[in-house]
């Protein structure tokens, strides 16, 4: 777009440009034209200007539709963008001009068609053909067509007028001829089968015909599938297949009139089944009523508002599907279809039960889900004596009306989920066998128990459930998440009850008869107020017992002796101090396989009891009071596959763990383990988590088991890994280790305010589909970005968002748009490209910054999310949710929106059977039902804010907000806190991917974030240690999760077309340094003439910044260290810069007042000045210290380690030591490094006379201490040539 075009576009928001592609998708880039137009420009005008007949529209890389001449392309684009969530017309104009939008909406001048699609519709060509199995006939050149179910052979010259030979292929066979190359034999079915031999010119052509013809021949029925081909008409050759009985034309754009249109379908004389769903018909084609042979007709999702009276002609119709339309009534003529047994009316606009259904005596199911019914008319149901199944979920039902006491003996199944019922009396349905009434507002429920077999009433407000008479056939009863204070008496009398779920109620005790039931196999009583279980007197068949989150202090002594079939026991989050014995003598009959005892008060005394369960496969003992695990006891658990001992006080894992040959997962983080356990000899070991311990070294074998996929060693501050060890670990898919000590001493300004820890666990799945973004220093350095992305079953999208979303956020923030957070999600949605067409991802993004309009204000937190990822703020010890869950089960507004747009919500509560989320990034093919527009909230941070918790769906599904906050509030290590949250979720029943991020906040009202005028000597190589990180795959990398596949972050970023820049500073090591305005906090506001300027986040080194984040050109004469006239105590910390052999990095300056920090480069020393009279100096120092100790997260690994192609991380020494490169840079005697080495006047350290003696004494002490420390750390290091030039 040239300058003139840009000026023309800016004149009016209703103007824009449309990209028009050619008909060949492979050459789309070369055949691309830009058309300038307005929102009022019709298709006809564009076609006239381009000399084209038509214009075609493709959405999400899927179907291609011919636009009508009166349609307006630019208005279509703007409406699409507005539907996504864009609001500003100028921004929509900008987005419409972005070529990336073509992955979501694209215009073609010719209808594109893939070769594969053409093959399935029509294969044709001129080949040599011989008829018959013998060689009596000669080879002749013929036109051969494979269409539908037939092979058509005709003369080349007279292909349409001459004689045509039609060979039915259904039930026949297609074989290759061995005597003649590239030749196939087509044979029809039946006693008088005919055969045609066809010779092809190439192997590829022969294989295409063989593959497609074999598919047709293998069909048992004469079925033709032409779905999803953007067809406007049926291919003419298809009508020669007179044996077609099943025709699928779903997801096309079939025309009602014209050649090959719906009017022509009556030419199929044997057609029985026709699928025309999703064809944008608008009106019911009357011509279909002439196909009297039809027994099945699907015309769902076509925008129909009424049915014609001619529908009564389809007398043979048995199945009629009308779901997803706008029907409000049915014609009386429909009652003449006496063979109709299935009628689909779900997701229409019916307000009452259709009375015509009374006449359809063969109809046994009433499918009216997703309509507008407000009253359940039981009297009308009584009149429909033939109806056995009723589906009324997702309506607006508020009450059930009963006009008489007459009972209903026909209805056996009823689904009333997701309505607004407050009480329900179905006692008149005496034949009812199964009832679903989840997610209503029920307080009372009354049923007839004569035939009742299953009752599902979860997520209500039930206090009373009455069933009379006692349901003797009841096998399954689910009453979880209600307000029951006791188990109903009739439950104890149900003699066939096998599954009882009363979890998340208000129960204080269980009736003894429940546990003594001779039929009960699964009992779920978790999240109640039980203090004890009744004793067991007899043997019971119980197999699953879940009593987590109660107040139980002791399990029944005879539990394992009487419940010999018990295979699963979850007693986590109780107050257990001991466990009952599983042995009466020496032999144990226990069949227990899964045992979860996390978050109790168990001690070492319970370990011997566990040996009685020799069939244990999974054992969770996290967050107890264990100090030792006897070696002799562990050796007896030979069947153990997963062991979780996290959050205890263990100092070692017994060596007898080597006897657990089947062990594949060991989780023992947050202990005091100092010796690496002997687990690397185990043949099936896959995942080992020993983070947050006290490991110092690892003794490993020469070869590791090939099954090892994940090893987490973060949080072991004293652990030193040699290069040999790292080489052995190189094949591990995911290796998480801490950075080197001198690299982790990143005491930037942001360390005072926040630090983070990230944990991600795959659970029972074989891949991790959760990724995290953690940038504690973003943009100016006193901003932070944290995010979490959950792809459910795909790992591609979370990684793409992890690499690109921070850069998108930075661009949006720099535009100073009030909608920056919402636009960040919408632009990220676009940048997913083709990957986002079929895949989707939940996301939450948190952005901490000062208010742009008021730089002197406190920090504010802006949170945006889509899907099921959430963020929770801990304020004064209480949880404060900041996100909105966009799922069908938890957001009634979204359910209403999706229903209005006529999406089909399947019985498992998923949009079109794909996902339960209604807002996601990606999944563009489900537009407009699935949108990327996020929920955005902003809140100012205060001194009462302690933690920020981020988690995916699996975390919040098993942990409440209050429980998550209370579980980690007392922990000082954010990594250990995040690990604990994931461990708790897994112990509470989560088997899916779980991710948690904990951000420790230290926000104070007088927190100073000024960049004062003064300099320190840059760290090794002249790179900033305060606000920059080591080189990472992408400029937005604050990556908190490890890549688990052979794809680096940079490769992912390049594939998605990221805006991230992987280039280093343009100036390089020799470039000039650009000055930048200093930053001031609310205590020390910037002068009015100052300019507030943002800089892009960059994870690479920048040579134009010094250690404290200031530009080297910002040097100012130091006027003194007096702040308010009082005496200031100055503490000086001196470190020597030792060039290439340097093993530590000077920490950044910690600001606690307006004291300036000078630089003295005459001796290569760094002077760190800390003011002692600031009111918050101690708090700042403490916060920095804690942050240095606690910032051990997986993100640290990615920031300071190089990711290998297999996902492993090794130190930068083996690949590219930027510190060494930068240290050697002064040897270049040109440019900036040719500066003289003498001290500049403005670099002098000025101290008031009354403090000179005190400062000299402190400097002398620190210099001696630093020298001693350097000798101890590097006794054998030969110092290279030193350069005292200021970098």
TrEMBL record:
Residues 755-1001 form the PPM-type phosphatase domain. GO terms for molecular function: metal ion binding; protein serine/threonine phosphatase activity. GO terms for cellular component: cytoplasm; membrane; nucleus. Residues 1253-1287 are annotated as: Disordered. It catalyses: O-phospho-L-threonyl-[protein] + H2O = L-threonyl-[protein] + phosphate. It is a peripheral membrane protein. SMART domains: LRR_BAC, LRR_TYP, PP2Cc. InterPro entries: Leu-rich_rpt (IPR001611), Leu-rich_rpt_typical-subtyp (IPR003591), LRR_dom_sf (IPR032675), LRR_domain-containing (IPR050216), PPM-type-like_dom_sf (IPR036457), PPM-type_phosphatase-like_dom (IPR001932), RA_PHLPP-like (IPR055071). Its cofactor is Mn(2+). It is found in: Cytoplasm; Membrane; Nucleus. Keywords: Cytoplasm, Hydrolase, Leucine-rich repeat, Manganese, Membrane, Metal-binding, Nucleus, Phosphoprotein, Protein phosphatase, Repeat. Protein phosphatase involved in regulation of Akt and PKC signaling. Mediates dephosphorylation in the C-terminal domain hydrophobic motif of members of the AGC Ser/Thr protein kinase family; specifically acts on 'Ser-473' of AKT1, 'Ser-660' of PRKCB isoform beta-II and 'Ser-657' of PRKCA. Akt regulates the balance between cell survival and apoptosis through a cascade that primarily alters the function of transcription factors that regulate pro- and antiapoptotic genes. Dephosphorylation of 'Ser-473' of Akt triggers apoptosis and decreases cell proliferation. PANTHER family: PH DOMAIN AND LEUCINE RICH REPEAT PROTEIN PHOSPHATASE 1 (PTHR48051:SF43), PTHR48051. This is PH domain leucine-rich repeat-containing protein phosphatase 2. It comes from Nothoprocta perdicaria (Chilean tinamou). The gene is PHLPP2.
């Amino acid at each position: 777009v040239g300058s003139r075009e840009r000026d023309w576009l800016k004149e009016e928001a209703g103007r824009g440009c449309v990209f028009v592609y050619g008909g060949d998708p492979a050459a789309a880039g070369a055949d691309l034209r830009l058309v300038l137009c307005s929102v009022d420009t019709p298709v006809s005008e564009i076609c006239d200007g381009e000399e084209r007949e038509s214009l075609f529209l493709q959405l999400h890389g899927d179907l291609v539709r011919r636009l009508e001449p009166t349609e307006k392309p630019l208005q279509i684009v703007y409406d699409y963008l507005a539907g996504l969530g864009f609001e500003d017309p100028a921004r929509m104009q900008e987005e419409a001009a972005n070529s990336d939008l073509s992955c979501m909406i694209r215009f073609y001048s010719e209808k594109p068609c893939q070769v594969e699609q053409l093959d399935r519709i029509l294969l044709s060509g001129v080949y040599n053909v011989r008829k018959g199995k013998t060689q009596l006939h000669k080879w002749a050149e013929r036109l051969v067509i494979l269409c539908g179910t037939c092979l058509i052979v005709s003369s080349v010259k007279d292909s349409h007028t001459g004689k045509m030979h039609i060979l039915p292929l259904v039930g026949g066979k297609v074989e290759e001829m061995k005597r003649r190359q590239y030749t196939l034999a087509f044979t029809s079915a039946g006693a008088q089968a005919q055969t045609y031999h066809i010779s092809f010119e190439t192997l590829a052509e022969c294989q295409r015909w063989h593959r497609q013809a074999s598919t047709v021949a293998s069909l048992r029925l004469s079925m033709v599938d032409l779905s999803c081909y953007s067809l406007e008409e049926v291919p003419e050759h298809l009508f020669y297949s007179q044996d077609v009985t099943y025709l699928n034309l779903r997801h096309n754009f079939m025309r009602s009139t014209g050649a090959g249109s719906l009017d022509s379908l009556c030419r199929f004389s044997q057609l029985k089944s026709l699928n025309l769903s999703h064809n944008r018909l608008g009106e019911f084609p009357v011509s279909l009523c002439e196909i009297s042979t039809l027994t099945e007709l699907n015309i769902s999702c076509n925008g129909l508002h009424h049915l014609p009276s001619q529908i009564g002609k389809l007398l043979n119709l048995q199945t009629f599907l009308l779901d997803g339309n706008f029907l409000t009534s049915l014609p009386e003529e429909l009652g003449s279809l006496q063979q109709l047994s299935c009628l689909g009316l779900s997701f229409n606009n019916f307000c009452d039960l259709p009375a015509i259904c009374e006449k359809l005596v063969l109809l046994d199911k009433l499918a009216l889900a997703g309509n507008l019914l407000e009253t359940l008319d039981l009297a009308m149901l009584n009149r429909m004596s033939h109806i056995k199944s009723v589906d009324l979920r997702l309506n607006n039902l508020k009450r059930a009306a009963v006009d008489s006491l007459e009972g209903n003996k026909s209805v056996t199944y009823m689904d009333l989920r997701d309505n607004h019922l407050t009480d329900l009396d179905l006692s008149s349905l005496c034949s009812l066998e199964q009832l679903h009434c989840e997610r209503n507002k029920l307080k009372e429920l009354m049923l007839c128990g004569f035939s009742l077999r299953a009752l599902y009433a979860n997520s209500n407000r039930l206090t009373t459930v009455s069933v009379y008479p006692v349901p003797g056939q009841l096998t399954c009863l689910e009453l979880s998440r209600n307000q029951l204070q006791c188990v109903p008496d009739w439950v104890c009398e149900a003699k066939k009850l096998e599954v009882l779920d009363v979890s998340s109620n208000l129960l204080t005790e269980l009736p003894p008869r429940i546990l003594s039931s001779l039929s009960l196999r699964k009992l779920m009583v978790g999240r109640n107020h039980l203090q004890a279980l009744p004793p067991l007197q007899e043997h019971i068949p119980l197999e699953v017992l879940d009593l987590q989150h109660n107040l139980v202090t002791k399990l029944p002594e005879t539990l394992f002796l009487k419940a010999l079939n018990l295979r699963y026991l979850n007693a986590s989050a109780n107050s257990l101090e001991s466990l009952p014995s599983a042995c009466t003598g020496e032999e144990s009959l226990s069949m227990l396989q899964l045992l979860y005892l996390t978050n109790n008060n168990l001690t070492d005394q319970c370990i011997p009891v566990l040996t009685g369960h020799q069939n244990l496969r999974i054992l969770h003992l996290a967050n107890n009071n264990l100090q030792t695990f006897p070696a002799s006891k562990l050796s007896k658990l030979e069947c153990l596959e997963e062991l979780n001992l996290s959050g205890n006080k263990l100092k070692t894992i017994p060596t007898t763990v080597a006897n657990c040959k089947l062990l594949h997962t060991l989780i023992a983080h947050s202990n005091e383990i100092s010796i690496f356990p002997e687990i690397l000899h185990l043949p099936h070991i896959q995942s080992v988590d020993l983070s947050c311990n006290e490991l110092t070294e690892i003794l490993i074998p020469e070869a590791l088991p090939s099954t090892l996929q994940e090893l987490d060693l973060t949080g072991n501050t004293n652990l030193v890994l040699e290069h040999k060890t790292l080489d052995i670990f190189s094949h591990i898919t995911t290796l998480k280790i801490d950075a080197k000590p001198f690299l982790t001493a990143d005491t930037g300004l942001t360390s005072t305010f926040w630090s983070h820890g990230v944990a991600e666990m795959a659970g029972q799945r074989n891949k991790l589909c959760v990724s995290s973004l953690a940038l504690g220093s973003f943009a100016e350095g006193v901003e932070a970005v944290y995010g979490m992305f959950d792809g459910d079953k795909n790992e591609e999208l979370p990684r793409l968002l992890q690499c690109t979303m921070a850069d998108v956020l930075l661009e949006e923030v720099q535009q100073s748009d009030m909608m920056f957070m919402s636009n960040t999600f919408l632009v990220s949605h676009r940048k997913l490209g083709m990957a986002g067409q079929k895949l989707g991802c939940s996301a939450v993004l948190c952005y901490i910054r000062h208010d742009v309009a008021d730089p002197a204000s406190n920090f504010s937190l802006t949170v945006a999310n889509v899907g099921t990822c959430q963020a929770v703020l801990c304020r004064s010890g209480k949880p404060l949710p900041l996100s909105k869950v966009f799922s069908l089960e938890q957001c009634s507004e979204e359910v209403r929106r999706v229903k209005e747009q006529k999406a089909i919500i399947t019985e498992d509560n998923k949009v079109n059977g794909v996902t339960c989320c209604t807002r996601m990034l990606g999944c563009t093919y489900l537009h407009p039902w699935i949108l990327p527009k996020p929920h955005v909230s902003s809140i100012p941070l205060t001194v009462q804010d302690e933690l920020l918790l981020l988690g995916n769906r699996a975390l919040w599904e098993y942990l409440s907000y209050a429980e998550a906050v209370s579980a980690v509030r007392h922990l000082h290590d954010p990594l250990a806190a995040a690990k604990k949250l994931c461990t708790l979720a897994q112990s509470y029943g989560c088997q899916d991917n779980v991710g948690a991020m904990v951000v420790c906040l230290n926000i104070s009202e007088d927190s100073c974030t000024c960049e004062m005028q003064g300099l320190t000597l840059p760290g090794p190589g002249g790179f900033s240690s305060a606000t920059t990180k080591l080189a990472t795959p992408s400029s937005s990398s604050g990556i908190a999760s490890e890549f688990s596949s052979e794809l680096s972050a940079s490769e992912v970023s390049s594939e998605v077309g990221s805006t991230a820049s992987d280039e280093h500073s343009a100036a390089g090591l020799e470039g000039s340094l650009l000055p930048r305005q200093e930053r001031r906090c609310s205590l020390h506001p910037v002068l009015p003439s100052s300019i507030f300027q943002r800089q892009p986040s960059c994870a690479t080194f920048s040579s134009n910044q010094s250690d404290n984040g200031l530009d080297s050109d910002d040097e100012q004469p130091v006027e003194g260290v007096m702040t308010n006239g009082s005496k200031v105590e100055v503490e000086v910390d001196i470190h020597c810069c030792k060039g290439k052999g340097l093993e530590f990095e000077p920490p950044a300056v910690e600001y606690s007042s307006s004291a300036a920090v000078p630089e003295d480069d005459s001796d290569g020393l760094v002077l760190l000045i800390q003011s002692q009279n600031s009111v918050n100096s101690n708090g700042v120092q403490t916060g920095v210290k804690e942050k240095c100790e606690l910032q051990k997260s997986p993100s640290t690994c990615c920031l300071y380690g190089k990711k290998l192609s297999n996902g492993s991380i090794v130190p930068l020494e083996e690949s590219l030591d930027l510190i060494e490169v930068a240290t050697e840079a002064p040897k270049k005697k040109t440019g900036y490094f040719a500066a003289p080495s003498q001290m500049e006047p403005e670099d002098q350290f000025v101290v008031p006379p009354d403090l000179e003696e005190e400062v000299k004494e402190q400097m002398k002490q620190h210099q001696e201490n630093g020298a001693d420390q350097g000798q101890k750390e590097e006794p054998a290091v030969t110092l290279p040539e030193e350069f005292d030039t200021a970098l």
